[in-house]
Amino acid sequence: MDHSTVSPSHAPGGPSPASDAASFPGPPTAPAAGTPTPRAGRPRDLVAVNIGNALEWFDWNIYAIFAPFFAAQFFRAEDPVSSLLSTLAVFAVGFLMRPVGGWLFGRLADDRGRKFSLTLAILLASFGSLLIAVAPTFDAIGVWAGVVLLVARLIQGLSHGGETGSAFTYLAEIAPQDKRGFWASTPWLGVGVGTMLATGVGVLLTALLSEAQMAEFGWRIPFAVAAVLGVYALYIRKTMNESEVHTERKERDEREGADSPPLREVFSELGREWKPLLHIVGLTISGVVAFYTWFIFAPGYASREFGMDPNASLVAGLCGQAVFLVAIPVMGKLSDRFGRKPVLMVFAAGFALVAFPLEWMLGPSPFMLFLAMAAGSVLLAANCAPLGAVFAELVPTKLRATLIGVGYATSGAIFGGTAPYLNTWLSSIGMHGLFVGYMILLCLISVVVIIKMPETASRDLR
Fold first, then answer.
1. Which of 83, 147, 286, 370 could make an S-S bridge to 71, C-beta 3.0–4.6 Å?
2. Does this entry carry the keyword Manganese (predicted)?
């Protein structure tokens, strides 16, 4: 679908705006007769994207998991909580680069190709991990240690902001149309596997090394591993085929003599697509906060607030995250069968109802932490699984990776990046319930967006 020929609100094969908000379609309809259909991508391309995606998320999440071990190595503060907050602030600063990465890599993906963008993203992510692995500490170079850490996180934030939009776009475009929800949900398997690998490395290292050894050198190990694995991820990304939807659009532009538009024209086109961009933001804000709270932050929170053994909390978290891996493909398939909106609503409405009960389950018991994270993981899967498909279906091919990258990365920066810091601060002053109320409010906003947005499952992406 080319932006110059058809509005995304009236995409071929999609329902009319009048019926969008009122009904959920069945399985996607086939393209009109005589319309050439791009060949579906190879399963190996799907695997290549998701292995790289898993390693990218491993790179990103080992920082949050190992922050308590190296906080004092880069920041000097008498209060350990203050030191941790300083490190989490750098975690949030990394998120500030994600909108920049979403824009930069989105433009690269829309102009140079999805494969090029994804390959460059994993290269930068691995370099950021290598920089942290060899970074000197405060004792060696003073305040410059924090500067080195900040630069590394900015690089990783840039690449991470570009990874998600390009991955969603690529997999949605190469998927068989009747399996688009399932194929486009698989980057979240990479998210889960990468996060679980990071958590598993945390479990292993805390079991094998003493607390003093972890503070001295143990925290460097996962970053070094991430840098080495990045070499493999770079190789598999280079073996992928380019998206045929993107290639056909570029060839059509070349036949028509259309060059890459100037920046002013790109901004103008983005401005005309404000409605789907707001839909992307509205669907994202609740999920990213819930994700970083229940998928990343919860084990450390249980350890600090309830005195749970750190190793036991990591094991419980790992098991809870495993539920997410099972639920994601199920929710992806359900979005192909029943449409995107019903599945998205399961999370938005469901999480608003159970946010406080999930919090009340937490205590010193690792088993209760597992149950809470498992329940949260099922609901999170209902949010995450349809996102790749519905984002791609909302926007035109010409601007697809840019719009998805900017919308998703900006939401992640503002809401997801600040969630651990805000949660820690409110908990430290005895107002953790206010943070839970904040998550509920974001879910209710998503409920309104889901009701108002069109159903997109039957749309043709060209």
1. 83
2. no
Average pLDDT over residues 224-246: 85
pLDDT over 50 at 132, yes or no = yes
d(CA 195, CA 222): 12
**Tokens 């370099």, located at residue:** 127
Residues 6+ apart with CB under 8 A from 127: 155, 227, 230
Residue 10: the pLDDT is 35
pLDDT in tens, 93-117: 777 788 888 889 888 888 888 889 9
Q: How many residues does the chain have?
A: 462
Mean pLDDT of 216-238: 88
Cβ–Cβ contacts within 10 Å for residue 345, how many?
A: 17
> What's residue 271's pLDDT?
67
Helix ranges (H only) for 339-431 are 340-361, 366-394, 400-411, 419-428
Residue 338: C-alpha distances to residues 134, 235, 237, 351 (Å)? 49, 37, 32, 20
Is residue 159 pLDDT above 60, yes or no?
yes
pLDDT in tens, 382-405: 999 999 999 999 988 888 888 888
Does the pLDDT at position 177 exceed 50?
Answer: yes
| 371 backbone dihedrals φ, ψ, rounded to 5° | -60, -45
DSSP string for residues in 43-95: HHHHHHHHHHHHHHHHHHHHHHHHHHHHHHHH---SSHHHHHHHHHHHHHHHH
Nearest to 186 by CA among 199, 201, 167: 167
Q: What is the mean pLDDT of residues 231-241?
A: 85
* 256 burial via Cβ count (<10 Å: 0-12, 13-18, 19+): exposed
> Could you tell me the two tokens for 426?
């409110």
From CA 369, how far away is CA 365, in angstroms rounded?
7
With both helix axes pointing from N to C terminus, report the angle between 187-208 and 220-238 in degrees, rounded to the nearest 10. 150
Q: Which two tokens stand for residue 245?
A: 């939807």
Segment 34-37 long-range contacts (CB within 8 Å, at least 24 positions apart): 35/460, 37/177
CA dihedral 417, 286, 269, 336 (to 10 degrees): 130
Query: Rounded to whole angstroms, how far apart are CA atoms 375 and 378?
Result: 5
